[in-house]
Amino acid sequence: MYLQTDTQTMEDLRLFSKADTQGIYDIYNQSFTRGGQAIMESMFKKPLSDRTAIQQRINIISAFAELNATFPFDGATLDNVEKYITYDDNLDGGSKVTLSEKETQNGIAAVVRLFHTLRQYVANGELGGVPELEADRMAVSVLLQDPAFAPVFNEQPDARLSFGAVTAFDVLIRVKEKRKVLELLRFIYHLDVYISVARVALQHSMVFPKVHPKGTAILHVAGVYHPLLKHAVPNTLEMPPARNLVFLTGANMAGKSTFLRSFSTAVYIAHMGFPVAAAAMEFSVLDGVYTTINLPDNLGIGASHFYAEVLRVKKIALELSAGKSLFVLFDELFRGTNVKDALEGTLAVCSAFTNRKASKFIISSHIIEAADELRKKDSAAFYYLPTRMNGAVPEYTYTLQEGVTNDKHGMIIISNEGILEILKQGNKGGKRLNKQL
């Protein structure tokens, strides 16, 4: 069972790199193999929504972390094996690729070395400390004992193969037993992912979350921070079963969007069974995660920003009405309309959200008037990110506090930049500005 999410959420959380911007995937991906990288990418696109599956993956990765495991296979050997075994798959429908005699010989020699290393690792390696992989270890052992592979183990790993041996091995590996070889490679690719993520957990002092059953409505993240920020300020937010909506306020530049991304990323990554950038985390398994941080206008259907927001809320409402338990985040809900409509819309939607006890909602807003009405809801909580004034200069703590703030420093920032003075000076001021730029 996979967690429901969408492209908007993955782009909001910047899971994958874009242009020169690093993605969350890049932090976790220390894989040695192309196959491992492909599996890692698939895990990022398809988080889990089954508690047993999530806990199993957590147990596997944390066991490798405790063992301080290292990947036992040589990257160059695996590159040669991958190139050799998959070169004629022709998945994209393009022209067939052929390998030279030398490339074929190198590929087969790499397969022989890989088989010897894998047999030794399965028999004597670290897998004994990972109970969840015992069934896979046994299955690999059985495959390696297949009489068809006896000629492979009769060869020494670094022996020079004759032309006749190369021809015979080519038929054996790439034709007769290719499916079994690919099964062994898939096992190695998964090892690559588990071990690389375990090493990331150790390098970045990440923690493995505690997983609660679906429907228990627990969400507690302590000391959460954004893994892409060098000097991130950690924050703690607890949403017990009795609290399902957080109303977040704060001035522009106070750190709302960064906190929202940090918290949402932890929720998303936890459903992958990966370690998270936090001091501690507990969560109940959810059916879906949907965020709305950078919602673009949908010009393709002639939709304004406001209408795009309405369609986004409608999509989530339909999921909730189907009985799904969701984590939902809106950064400045209904920012695309006037203040009156934004207030009425925010109140109506947030009030409806508070009745969905199995789901969790975080709504950031500048419409602080909505807080007065929402305080009547027992399941609503209120937090803000404060601003302190140092003379005429706003300073930000980036530390979450309980309550509501009316901090607004937009005009102060505009004034500090001298924009109005520049505009008053006319063409002369424009020339001076061009020089400064």
UniProtKB/TrEMBL annotation:
The keyword Nucleotide-binding applies. Keywords: ATP-binding, DNA-binding, Nucleotide-binding. InterPro entries: DNA_mismatch_repair_MutS_C, DNA_mismatch_repair_MutS_sf, MutS, P-loop_NTPase. Residues 243-431 form the DNA mismatch repair proteins mutS family domain. The keyword ATP-binding applies. It comes from the Bacteria. This is DNA mismatch repair protein. The lineage of its organism: Bacteria, Pseudomonadati, Bacteroidota, Chitinophagia, Chitinophagales.
